Amino acid sequence: MFIESPKSKVSKSKEETFNFLNDLANFEKLMPENIDKFEVLNENRFLFSLKGMPEIVLEKKNQQPYSKLVLGAASEKLPFTLTADIHELEPSKSEVTLSFAGEFNAMMAMMIKSPITNFMNTLATNLEKI
What is the CATH number of domain 2-127? Predict the structure, then answer.
């Protein structure tokens, strides 16, 4: 399953945007209003849960300074990645595309597609406000 957010225009340079996302504590500012729990576990991992959903631990999997940050599920039960691709528009403006990729059976994919799409859209919308 692959879900891509609308492109977010950010009023920060490519480097500033990357550094914002690379500091995992900042993801709390991007989360939806129905966040139930958010906790930074260490510099490479954070945990969050939305009301009525199980806790998810995300960890840094890969990064290419100033252009890409890949987070992935720490649990092998639900393997997926959340990728932020950052492109420079101007020296002080950048554009971010968030993408979600995971392998799920058809039933699971059907159940989570809508909530994940909404979650990704919220992250993208909130990213424009940083």
Answer: 3.30.530.20
